[in-house]
Amino acid sequence: MVHLEKIIALQKNPANIRNLCILAHVDHGKTTLADCLVASNGIISSRLAGKLRYLDSREDEQVRGITMKSSAISLHYRNGDQEYLLNLIDSPGHVDFSSEVSTAVRLCDGAIVVVDAVEGVCPQTQAVLRQAWLENIRPVLVINKIDRLIMELKLTSQEAYTHLQKILEQVNAITGTLFTSKVLEERAEKEKEEEKESETLSGDQVFDWSAGLEEVDDSHLYFSPEQGNVVFASAIDGWGFSIQQFAHIYSQRMGIKAEVLLKTLWGDFYLNAKAKKIMKGAQAKGKKPLFVQFVLDNIWSLYDAVVTRRDKEKVEKVVASLGIKVMARDLRHSDPKVLLSAICSQWLPVSQAVLSMVCEKLPSPLDMASERAEKLMSVGARRFDSLPAQTQKLKTAFLQCSSEDNAPVIVFVSKMFAVDTKALPKYKPRPLTQEEIVQRRELARQRHADRMAADQTAAESHKELAHSESMSQESQPDSSTVSQTQPPEEEEELKETFIAFARVYSGVVKKGQRVFVLGPKYDPDFLSKVPEGCSASDCVFEVPHLSCCSMESIYLLMGRELEDLEEVPAGNVLGIGGLEECVLKSATLSTTPACPPFTPLNFEATPIVRVAVEPKHPSEMPKLVRGMRLLNQADPCAEVLIQETGEHVLVTAGEVHLQRCLDDLRDRFAKIEISASKPIIPFRETVVRPPKVDMVNEELGKQQKVAIIHQVKEESSQGRSSDTLLVDPSGLVTLTTPNRLATVCVRAIPLPQEVTQLLESNSEVIRTLEQINMSLREGKSLDISLRTLEAIAGLKDQLDSLLQGRKWRNAVERIWAFGPRRYGPNILLNNVDSYQRPSVWQCLGRGDKTVEAGAQAAVLRDFDNSIISGFLLATLSGPMCEEPLMGVCFCVERWDVQSSAPAQHQESFEEDSMSHKALADNKVERSSETSAQEEGMASGLGQAERRPEPASDCYGPVSGQLIAAMKEACRHAFQAQPQRLMAAMYTCEIMATAEVLGRVYGVLGKREGRVLHEEMKEGTDMFIIKAVLPVAESFGFADEIRKRTSGLASPQLVFSHWEVISSDPYWVPTTEEEYLHFGEKADSANQALKYMNAVRRRKGLYVEEKIVEHAEKQRTLSKNK
Ligand SMILES: Nc1nc2c(ncn2[C@@H]2O[C@H](COP(=O)(O)OP(=O)(O)OP(=O)(O)O)[C@@H](O)[C@H]2O)c(=O)[nH]1
Ligand SMILES: [Mg+2]
């Protein structure tokens, strides 16, 4: 079994620790490879390696054959004369679980990227390489499943070599794009400088595939066999090698220098037997490259002898020549694969190849780059060097990774995971030592005697006895080693225990130690509020986002098992128990409050599939609520929320993830029957330019356009106070507040598609920009990091270049706000001539743009925030089906606030308004701002709408009325334009053979999918189809494809973008031809209308159905009223 003592000893030497994860596309063989590595430590038998998938410990993981949770295991490995500790994390490859990859990557210094030799680079391969880059961790490559090239594709060794070269090129191409991408430019600069002085690598001609890259020596960033960062393997057959191994073998056998072989074994080199020389240009001369001759041919002939021809004699010869021993029963086994694994796992054990590569090529925790440390520590938009000095000092703690007594403890928790309480080490049977057995026997005898006595005296109080017995066992440390210790059954709460998945970056974590828990919003600037010399153990003071807790237990993570530990030194991955009360999903723990919270994890997946959940029996609601809370904690990506309607909603990354969450909820966390609604599909609402042709492609005449506008006008003025509302034919809406004090004129214009996309992809930058503006408004000065400023300036420049033309002149400078939530993809534009407000870009050229405006403008500025709030509300839910808006620009053309109200309407109001004017302006500004920010604005509006007439305080409502008026104006302006729904779209890549291609297209077509392109995968008979598909049509898609293509790899659906649905939901046939074409009702073809009504129905909004065909529909209608 595992040598726990050995691992504990190794934990103390960070130089020989490697924290690494295995990353790949789904099904490329990560868990199988992990099995081989685990088997090398004797944790599982090597015969079972690849079959067991030991790290897939969940039942559903085993059933479905995919990994859903990342799990860690500690292994030891002897490489040469050094002993290493490897903390290995296996991650899932399915895109639904990519958040699990993020949590794994954060704790590692390196990664093994696995690529299937047949499928090559797939979408998730790209995604994981990107994640590795973003976290600055170093990858090594394993090209797996090479046996498939032999047995399935039946390639010759020469063809296989070409194929492998292509895969390597593909992988390096991704690295290349990452490297040249903006994120890495600075990094390249730095490394160029550092590397200039140090060695200049000689073998230019060797790196053929990287030719064409710039002068920078970036070769170490790429994968290449001669660098030793590539292993070729077949995890299922248990073999793998790097060219180092073969260089070693052949240098001994043929007397060629190992260094020469290392440079030439991979590449266009061949052996000139006569001249006894290795020459370049194998391809041109039609010679066998060395790699084929020395490496692949051997493997090919082994497969040929063992599996294809089953040639006993040859096998024996090979076995003898390799100098390995094969057991007789393996030789006789009816399945040739058994013999093959037996030979291969001795000849080229994959664990050895991979683990020695890991030890040599991946960095240890001591090699943490100072740049990475700064990145982990930088809080929000702040520059590292603007952090308090105490905080900056901690950087050395990161870099030193010291386990000295005085080193501060810094721990990052990347996720919380739930384990069955029964599986905790303290309740687990474990082998007993000889002494313990003796001791135990003694105890048992005694207990037996006791029990006999007790039974006789008080048989009826048996239960209590058992209870007290278990209590006493717990309290006695000696007897806790006894294997039958049971977890306390009576407390249901204890069924699941949460363990933090964490890493120690500095210091030594001790069992029972108290630490500060730093929330993501904690700022080391609060340090001043922490009493001097205060430690986590006397935590009574109140500092925002700072709390304390003690680490009750510390575990070594061993796949399915946990081992109790007393302490863990810096540089190790570990599990921490007892944090569930103070850590939700991730957190930073430290003994010093000067420590900043780590930057948030990079999540690639957007949670998009939402369902409403309810218990089968309404009385079990509390259990469901508790279960959902636990689920939320146990999953890095799932979101749990309660909607305004009171529904409990679960948001997940995709169908598979949803299924897993529901299963977990049912079987582990809530333990009740639950029912889930159909997935709730998100939509966006937008406006488009008026169409030029009608639905049957006829040119639209002027006449009709007018008709549409009339219709809109009629609609919008119906039932509303039309004396305060005016919609002009061009779509300009003028609205006056009920107290007649303020008037706004708003127009809605569609934003160009590129602008919407830009805003969408830059929401983080905009959010930062808003935060900066907020601080500036509060008069705080900020040290903004250069990178942030550049990002903001970049966004502004891009907007400038995209918003061209007369309509958008100077628009970027006039941007008032973004919305909803202040960073959404809609713009509020200030077109009011008399109003000069500070630009949202003021942080770029601070000071010079803020023109002090006159008295009138000053008044306006006081209510400025009401206008923004109204805009935010309007963009949060649109008039079509109360979904958020997207790609809409609202221009405020005119905005008047009268200093006095019209006399005929509100005399009393006027009086008050005059007397308190000056005083109140400030107050109003502040109150409306806080309500907008903190209460999500909804409540403020509700009040304003309900009592439009001011009661006692006449100023509060002015801003309230203005918010409501602005919101209404935006809604009307929106409705004055042609409205459209936007659908969320997935992209997917499907691999299919030519025979089933037609059926794949059939399924795609039926579900409104669109094929983007299709190509043949080289070297195979597979086609790769790239398509987009509306999320609304995606449920069951993967299953259907799998069924129709008889079990092909299921497509991976990744959220990609929002797309305007071209059909107009409000469209009704108007021309004769349209009647002819679509019929009178014309609702059959209108997909947008269907979606819109479905959403409205779900939200309990009024659904207009013209003709009642079924009594059932009428019922739903009346219910909704
Ligand atoms: N032919 C062949 N099959 C392999 C090899 N390695 C793994 N497989 C098979 O590929 C399938 C997927 O293997 P896993 O190890 O579960 O893949 P994974 O990357 O862990 O998958 P996820 O965790 O779901 O992303 C299994 O059926 C394995 O038996 C190999 O070297 N050759
Ligand atoms: Mg797996």
Automatic annotation (TrEMBL):
Q: Which domain of life is it from?
A: Eukaryota
Q: What ranges does the record give for the region Disordered, renumbered to this chain? A: 444-493, 903-952
Among InterPro entries, the record links this protein to:
EFG_II (IPR041095), EFG_III/V (IPR035647), EFG_V-like (IPR000640), EFL1 (IPR056752), P-loop_NTPase (IPR027417), Ribosomal_Su5_D2-typ_SF (IPR020568), Ribsml_uS5_D2-typ_fold_subgr (IPR014721), Small_GTP-bd (IPR005225)
List all Basic and acidic residues biased stretches: 444-453, 913-928
Q: Which CDD domains match?
A: aeEF2_snRNP_like_IV, eEF2_snRNP_like_C, EF2, EF2_II, EF2_snRNP_III
Could you tell me the gene encoding this protein?
Answer: EFL1
Upper classification of the source organism reads:
Eukaryota, Metazoa, Chordata, Craniata, Vertebrata
Q: Do you know which SMART domains this protein is assigned to?
A: EFG_C
Please note every region of biased composition (Polar residues): 469-486
Cellular component per GO, a single term: ribonucleoprotein complex
Alphabetized UniProt keyword annotations: GTP-binding, Hydrolase, Nucleotide-binding, Ribosome biogenesis
Tr-type G domain location, by residue? 15-366
The cross-references to Pfam families, in alphabetical order and at most eight, read: EFG_C, EFG_III, EFL1, GTP_EFTU
**Would the keyword Nucleotide-binding turn up in this protein's UniProt record?**
yes
Q: What is this protein called?
A: Elongation factor-like 1
Which GO biological-process labels does this protein carry? cytosolic ribosome assembly
